[in-house]
Amino acid sequence: MTTPREAILQSVRQALHAGNRPGQAAVIEARGSIGYQGAEPDPVSRFCQELTATGGYVNVVADRQAAIAGTLELVKASTAQRILVGPGAFIDSLNLPEHLAALGCDIRLTGSLSAAGGHDHLFAADLGISLAQLTSSGSHRPGRAGTTGA
């Protein structure tokens, strides 16, 4: 039986044998239009298309109040109780920890996790919110009024 360590080393050996050398990029297979960086005239629409193509869900909102309401709806729908909230000017302006605590959620701010015990909270979380993205349910991005999500 192969140990996990042996499996990793075998994978590295195979990559080296195939010509993949440290510091040299290997040829990447074509992935269709996923990851295309041209946003066309409407970057919000393009973001929605790309995230949807990869299996994500987008809910474009008009303002901060709609972002808060939409985030709380997604949290309620997910039944998540242990939530990590990341730092950032936009997220901080939403005051999400207070709103989430009112739902009875156990909130952890990623910036306040210690190196000693923080990993326990990271791996125990049901949901993470960072840069206004709900990592397990979808994404919120501030957009123009009247724009609907994909």
Structure in words:
- With 150 residues, the chain is an alpha/beta fold.
- 40% of the residues lie in helices and 15% in strands.
- It has helices spanning 4-17, 43-53, 64-78, 89-94, 96-102, 118-124; strands at 58-61, 82-85, 106-109, 127-130, 133-134, 138-142.
- Strands 1-6-5-4-2-3 form a six-stranded mixed beta sheet, with helices on both faces.
- Strand 4 (127-130) and strand 5 form a beta hairpin.
Distance between the termini: 47 Å
Question: How is the largest sheet built, in terms of strand order?
Answer: 1-6-5-4-2-3
Number of helices: 6
User: How do the helices and strands follow one another from N- to C-terminus?
Assistant: HHEHEHHEHEEE
Helix proportion range:
40-55%
Sum up the structure in keywords.
about 150 residues; alpha/beta; 6-stranded mixed sheet; about 15% strand; flat; disordered C terminus
Write the SSE topology.
Blueprint: H1 4-17, H2 43-53, E1 58-61, H3 64-78, E2 82-85, H4 89-94, H5 96-102, E3 106-109, H6 118-124, E4 127-130, E5 133-134, E6 138-142
